[in-house]
Amino acid sequence: MATAANASLTNAAQTSLIKPWPVNTWYVACTPAEIDGKPLGRQICGERMVFFRNGEGKVAALEDFCPHRGAPLSLGFIENGALVCGYHGLAMGCNGRTVGMPGQRVGGFPPIRTFPVIERYGFIWVWPGDAEAADPAKLRHLEWAESDEWAYGGGLYHVACDYRLMIDNLMDLTHETYVHAGSIGQKEIDEAPVKTRIEGDEIVTSRFMDGIIAPPFWQMALRGAGLPDQQLVDRWQICRFSLPSSVLIEVGVALAGNGGYHADDSQKASSTVVDFMTPETTTSHWYFWGMARRFAVADAALTDTIREGQGKIFGEDMEILQLQQRNLDLYPDRKLLLLNIDAGGVRSRKMIDQAIAAEQAEVAAAGQVLAPAE
Amino acid sequence: MATAANASLTNAAQTSLIKPWPVNTWYVACTPAEIDGKPLGRQICGERMVFFRNGEGKVAALEDFCPHRGAPLSLGFIENGALVCGYHGLAMGCNGRTVGMPGQRVGGFPPIRTFPVIERYGFIWVWPGDAEAADPAKLRHLEWAESDEWAYGGGLYHVACDYRLMIDNLMDLTHETYVHAGSIGQKEIDEAPVKTRIEGDEIVTSRFMDGIIAPPFWQMALRGAGLPDQQLVDRWQICRFSLPSSVLIEVGVALAGNGGYHADDSQKASSTVVDFMTPETTTSHWYFWGMARRFAVADAALTDTIREGQGKIFGEDMEILQLQQRNLDLYPDRKLLLLNIDAGGVRSRKMIDQAIAAEQAEVAAAGQVLAPAE
Amino acid sequence: MATAANASLTNAAQTSLIKPWPVNTWYVACTPAEIDGKPLGRQICGERMVFFRNGEGKVAALEDFCPHRGAPLSLGFIENGALVCGYHGLAMGCNGRTVGMPGQRVGGFPPIRTFPVIERYGFIWVWPGDAEAADPAKLRHLEWAESDEWAYGGGLYHVACDYRLMIDNLMDLTHETYVHAGSIGQKEIDEAPVKTRIEGDEIVTSRFMDGIIAPPFWQMALRGAGLPDQQLVDRWQICRFSLPSSVLIEVGVALAGNGGYHADDSQKASSTVVDFMTPETTTSHWYFWGMARRFAVADAALTDTIREGQGKIFGEDMEILQLQQRNLDLYPDRKLLLLNIDAGGVRSRKMIDQAIAAEQAEVAAAGQVLAPAE
Questions:
Q1: What sequence ranges are listed for the domain Rieske (chains A, B, C) (predicted)?
Q2: Nearest to C272 by CA among C252, C304, C249, C238
């Protein structure tokens, strides 16, 4: 059915001076729970940042560097809405300006860099590039995060590989047959053809498998949805990549012969796998994963069961991707195959490359650098 | 009260070729207990050394490198007053010359480098520079280490930061309010002004707090001295830096209104915090810490209690300094603020820089290098 | 008796571009048990390889890199005699060509590198260099591995040092007195002179000690052989190095006065210590060690006892060699002594250097590189 492509790419691009991610865009930085009552230090797109919530509940992101003696501000604590350095008590405000320090006049203290942030959809989002260009309207709408018709649960992994290897992974679910043989994998996945297309600003890869036995994870989901778990089902996977680095995957099974993806809610268990990959370094990223579902939305125990199941599955991905990264590091100039099943990842990477090139062109045109002068 | 200084310094100097420590001077190398019956390998000022005690009880410091096959001599054992290599039995004498080896004539074996050592004041001291210039008279006198009127207890930490960050730390006790909130910190510290002055060959920073409540550590000390622990006290901290890298801090509390620092011994609990920082590499050092006290000197249990309390406190410093070092490494060119509270550290570093410059000038004048030719 | 040589060598050669091992030769890669039903990933002579047994029981060695997306093939599994990649199911054959992949025509897939292998003498052997030149006849004959008159037991250690330091170690057993004082070491070893000679393609170092008390390991062996363990014995050690990196050591004790090495089997416990050092990197190797013996060959419990004893002894070597390597890394230009006891290692290294030079000369003459073009 499919033919092997002759196209190829090298890994050498990874080591170029231009970082392999756009910066004038919104990335998931953390969840509100991670900054509950205390600051959080996290490196994002190569920048060490500290996140905290001030007295009025507003979230701020700053360089994680105290202007006094260079200690990480994230070791400190919140007092009167300011972030107090844990070394000598310098109190830093949301705007990167020192608001006080015992026995000191702080008016002349140099400001530290701030990063625009938005709190929305259950996440804190950060804009690591040019603060002037930050635009909340550029944050994609996430229907499932706001509607009562959806339930959501998820987690966070630190993964020691280029975030684009995770995008490749999520845009080619063929790997489920091999990496997740005991949960969501089944032979029919890699026997079913995939189609990849561009849909607006999304890259979409889809695969449909009709009249098959549901694998263990989906049998669990069918039971959770109050449906029989041993009947034949129609299964679907529709992977949607969008910039800068999210892959939302519509997945589900419907009792066979009811229309599959288009079946009535009463005949199916369907959900959206949520994946936000936030680069940390060129060879590591923060992986925010989860599942938004439209069945049994009030069942908190089911949310926990699904989270636990997903956590195991994504742990399997993490393991193989980290070893893939290590192997690619050892063979930096080796060309890889680009098969039809790889088209989703290839097109997603091309979209990322175009975004980076556009940013570089803007910078060149403006004759300025993205980072503020110090 | 105080004003923010505009002066600044960069961290880039740390990476220069000239090492950031003087070498023609005495550093604490180890304690006698560490070489009790066995050799000790330790890197000091970038040099890997082995310390051992020979048959007559004399301590020697040598390069930690067996001239036969390069094994570390510190893996060996002491026999007949020589240090025997644990690999093939080469026996090394205190003077860096091989004294024997089974089946070998050793007269022609090349010598290895020796380092001058002194055992005094409860420590082994080493001179890592030009052995010809080593002068025991240059070792500072330590009154508390020889007098029966004092008791001493202490410990050793390996700290992964530039030894000068520890000097900064000890010459600005403002940090106690933040880093040691549960033991010796109290709000009054960073509210009291500090004064920094040069006193002979010492940099002295002092702070006095009158009529305050003693913090937990000092309440413990007051009880140890047989004094009430809930009365108001006058508290003092007088930090004395001297070359190459010691900070001795006179600390204490007196029942309020009795003259504070000058109060009669019966009305106060006072002691000297002892800190010797011996560089290992440019980003790590050996931290010999302790406390010498003039109250309840026969109370060995109190010595242990104080040692345990100090150990916890200095563990808190170690944690923050190591993270500060990591942050400075990430921002090598960032300028730091130099406030009035930093004056003690700034002047101490200046004294160190002058000592290094003087050594360099001597070397240039003599047209020779410090390390012996091989 | 012996005199100290003035000759010397530097460690700097270790860091040259030419790798310090010949490649057109057979190295022990693994044991059959290590590839029982599953693939094994192992780096040998700088090459990452995967070893597996196909449907007909033939062993193959391939580059450990899936041509599809670069995952290590060693993470996969064996199915229908092919090595199936654990990421997306590419099935790789023994010949480095893809034999199948779900939904793909694989005829045009690029092959990956294969390495010649032989299974013989209880080991899998690999030829890491020019596959065209691989010749099974070049594998040395190992009598003890094929004869029923011998029993064999052994193990494998990963050692973080240049494999040549292990050769030095094994060609100079003087170290037993110091490193293995509690098992096979005894003072008489370093008091007995050694003789080193070339015997065909072997470097041979021998030492004989007559009328001594057997050390603990040999007392155990004497009991295993049904002989008294407290009588005086004649002991011998004959170390034989051969290319590329094996040291076989004839060792044993005979009841004193019966001819020593030449005594009748009924009067002695003798065996061959087997050591194959397979380079991993320039500073690490795989150490296959064992003992082949001609006494009590049917006693499996004795085989286990000896293996346990050897494992402890070689663990002591491993510890000191790793620290020696670390020390040599710190002093890359330091000259070492070459004494008479070092002659075995020195001559063995010279033989290795000649083999490397001969390979380089062949390559230069042929105007080609050893690795196949990609």
A1: 26-126
A2: C249
